[in-house]
């Protein structure tokens, strides 16, 4: 069964406490928290103060996805804010290995994210050092976009790379995940489903999370 990581970017920020309570009562294992700076991606979301508050509401995994330039400047701050997993973009890191090692030295799991145009082969020299690979299945910056079908090929290729090395690295898929395509994403080899609009715009978010968790 996949790990379900609802993206709070799609939640109702005026009811954030209620949304967190709903996730705590659901089968979701991770809270996915998207941080955008308006520079690396063409949108601005939320940052450290919001994550600090969300952290106080849950004992579940806080999965923080940094869509920002110079993420190295903030790794310690996000650890302090409560991140369990800190994911940076390969496209934003000049010294990726150093960034990954710093994240892990702080006691967090390290994730690396790839934009749709970035080949999974670019991870071959860092794959052994990371805990999560987050494949963007939409162009990052905005919720509600459609899943890019080529991502299925990338998942399969990455699954082969991980299995050949007998690694425990998780494959996380972010963007356009729906009840209709989740099964094909999991069958391709994904371990973690990030779902924003699919969860928070549904009439029964907890039921939707359960459906994603038990997807065939």
TrEMBL record:
Q: Which residues bind substrate?
A: 7, 65, 141-144, 174-176, 196-197
Query: Per its Swiss-Prot or TrEMBL entry, what cofactor is needed?
Result: Fe(2+); a divalent metal cation; Co(2+); Zn(2+)
Where is a divalent metal cation bound in this sequence? 32, 34, 65, 174
What GO molecular-function term can you cite, just one? D-ribulose-phosphate 3-epimerase activity
What protein name is recorded for this chain? Ribulose-phosphate 3-epimerase
Which reaction is catalysed here? D-ribulose 5-phosphate = D-xylulose 5-phosphate
PROSITE patterns in the record: RIBUL_P_3_EPIMER_1, RIBUL_P_3_EPIMER_2
Q: Which Pfam families match?
A: Ribul_P_3_epim
